[in-house]
Give the backbone structure.
Amino acid sequence: MKRRYLAFLQIIVLILVSIISGCGKKNNIKPGSIETSPGNELPECNWVMKVDQTIPKKYDDGTTVEHTLVFIAEKEGGTDVTGTYHGAFCLRSKLDISEFSNEGVEYTGGFDAYGFGNDVTFDIVAYDAQKFAKFGRIGDTGNPNLIDYETMAAFAHEITGSALLNPYVGGRYAGMGSGGINATGSGSAIIPVKIAIKSGKVHVDFPTLDIGSMFEGQLIEVPLGDNSQYKETMDIIEAMKEASKNSDSAGKDTGSAGISIPGGNGETKGQTGTNLEIPDSFPTDDVPVIPDAKIFNFYENGRKTNVAIMFGTDKSFDEVLEFYQENFISKLEKEPEKKESEGTIMFICEMEGYRNVSIVIMEDKSKTYNSIVALEVLK
């Protein structure tokens, strides 16, 4: 499950990382719509497309991803919008899973993906409704085009990006521990891009991405030689490049992070990572661990009288609950104390040979796993 989630996020980085868009202007000139003569020729100017917009998209699993496109492109000279444009862009997609925190569990992190396009070149031409509708569409993906636009561009471009995946889960109850993933991915992909312009407004569609709507911006006229609009947006893109480097470095060398906390009954040691081994001090014969458990956190005190593990599983919340009821809780002499909140259940158990055994089962709102389980024993 985790690998599928990581792969999905890397695809997002390559795909979520898209390109260009256009931005509107206060210009209603259609190509070829004005007849010119020596007496009424329009003055030449530079034509600048500019987009800086964030679109929040809520998906069926309840997560909300913020997709941000910053795009700039310029055509030097000319008296109408058609012609060849050059520019750059950044598409960022960010998920914050903290919204799923509840009284039993705290969620932080999520993912943060950046995609960049350099030396973007495309031609704005007269609008062709059929070509625009079909370009880049896969099945029913893409936005219906009900507006009679004036001009358009349809092209494919390579995007290169990186993503930080860092969902973490922490229990709010004593002894639950915490853990998660901190990993990065990078790559490149070629994706289709469509730009449509009407009345100075630019609409950008990524037909193979599930963003939900088009990005919108402006097409503006600026005097020849005035590059202030272009430079201002390029500075934003460069700042996003620097931010992506910091994001990438934050996730490096964290495949397995050690923890050492002095105090209590000797030094408490722990580890956070992926696919960790169950510590020898954890009594699996007495407190069972689900066979497909993917351990991402454990800790133990110096005398090994307090040991806890935290793991993810592909089993559903109900399946995990049934497993522990049949294989552990039903065998106890005394009914355990139970605490429940939405998507979380905790059992505090009395068991011969142990001072306390705690079991916490929770739905994984980050979708890294189907469920997360925390087990703690006090000997």
Summary: Helices lie at 2-15, 129-134, 228-250, 317-327. The two ends are 33 Å apart (CA to CA). Residues 47 and 221 are 5 Å apart (CA to CA). The first strand starts at residue 46 and ends at 58.
